Predict the 3D structure of the following.
Amino acid sequence: MEQATIEKVWQIKGLLFKNEDYHLALDLEDSTHRVLMRYIIVHPDSVPYQKGMEIGYDQEDFVVYTHKEDAKQSLYSVA
């Protein structure tokens, strides 16, 4: 059985990118939008990271955490 995991993501303009796709987030950065490191909890039934040719999560589909410890507390309080 798959379990929920905490993933480090890069947040910009309502999108979330996995760590290995940091360069995609950087491509969207400009003087008013900066890339931020965040954490999310990904469940087995979460929306897919890649849909066809599109890569990235929509920020609206996840609770975004600033600190990994906050994500851990949330994950363990649900478990």
About this structure: The CA atoms of residues 11 and 19 lie 10 Å apart. Helices lie at 22-28, 68-78.
